[in-house]
Amino acid sequence: MTYRLFLSHDSEKNKQIQSSLTDEIWQTIEVDYDSEVYLLLEDGSKIQDLDLILALLRPSLSFERKIKNLGTSFKNLVKAKVSGEKILASNEEINKRRAVCKDCPFSVRSFYGKVCSECGCNIKAKTSFLTEECPKGKW
Q1: What was the pLDDT predicted at 62?
Q2: Tell me: the pLDDT tens digits for 78-130?
Q3: Do 39 and 5 form a contact (C-beta atoms < 8 A)?
Q4: pTM greater than 0.70 (yes/no)
């Protein structure tokens, strides 16, 4: 599918899109400017929802990578529990982490709620455990 992305001048959405896409992706789409941000599909459909634009343009994580990330998270959780370490973050820590994720361009809506498009994890779950960390190093 061919995409034509329209960016608006000096838009906050513009900045979010630009920071969310890799150079490889930028090379595969046509970019133009208009009064608003939207993605024009081959059939003439216009998509204006930022989360949907990013979900369409970013390559999705493979099933194998999601399973690997989930396995690593589970292993770290069990290891911490067996070692007697605290595994649940405090409400204060959880709220701090979720505030960071809320404004992150890699936080996207999915069928399962908000997920991190970098690692595939559910944000509510990931931010609750001390054994977890942001794949972008933000917390």
Answers
A1: 67
A2: 999 999 999 999 999 999 999 999 988 888 877 667 888 888 889 999 999 99
A3: yes
A4: no
Between CA 78 and CA 11 the distance in angstroms is: 44
What are the domain boundaries of the chain?
4-57, 63-126
Helix axis angle, 12-20 to 50-57, nearest 10°: 20
Nearest Cα neighbor of 17 from 49, 44, 45 is 49
The pLDDT value recorded for residue 91 is 97
Q: Are 121 and 115 in contact (CB under 8 A)?
A: yes
Count of helices and strands (H, E) across the chain: 6, 6
In this prediction, what percent of the chain has a pLDDT beyond 70?
91
